[in-house]
Amino acid sequence: MIWRLLGITLAFIIGCNAPKPLENETNPAVAMSSLQSGLSTWHQGEQAATLSTRTPPIQFNDDDWVKGRKLEKFEMGALTPVGIGMRVPVTLTLRENNGALKVRKIHYRIYTSPAIAIGRDEN
Fold first, then answer.
1. What is the DSSP letter of 123?
2. Partner of 93 for a Cys bridge, out of 34, 45, 63, 72, CB 3.0 to 4.6 A?
């Protein structure tokens, strides 16, 4: 009887102290598919604003895209959780406005809740 009571008490203590998921935690699958969709849209020569008209809408902020640089190729790395978001390394091959190719290794920070938002992580 004492062991049963001890077991129930221990289960209660462990259950009450279990870590709870963070509010608005980023969904890894949605994060990767949203980044893939955004980079593919850029690669196809579309404007970033077209992403905000999709369902679900994606806010994608990248200065190279805004400045009119063309995305020739991209390679995405593995997701890393950072706070409630995700961080993804990406290698971009960009065509500069003067026609030169430039390879950049950068990171994107992605959030999926309450809305999908993607931007460069400068850290």
1. -
2. 72
Q: Where are the alpha helices (DSSP H) in the chain?
A: 2-16, 28-43, 63-66
* Spatial distance between the Cα atoms of 42 and 26, rounded to a whole number of angstroms: 23
Cα 103 from Cα 73, distance rounded (Å): 9
What is the tens place of the pLDDT at every residue in 58-95? 999 999 999 999 999 999 999 999 999 999 999 999 99
Sign of CA dihedral 29, 32, 38, 43: negative
Q: Which residue has the tokens 């849209």?
A: 41
Pick the range with the lowest mean pLDDT from 9-13, 69-73, 106-110: 9-13
Task: Report which of 62, 96, 57, 89 is spatially closest to residue 75, judged by C-alpha positions.
Answer: 89
- Domains of the chain and CATH, by start: 25-120 (3.10.450.50)
**Nearest partner of 94 among 55, 59, 49, 63, judged by Cα:** 63
Q: What's the confidence (pLDDT) of residue 90?
A: 98
Most confident of 2-16, 17-31, 98-112: 98-112
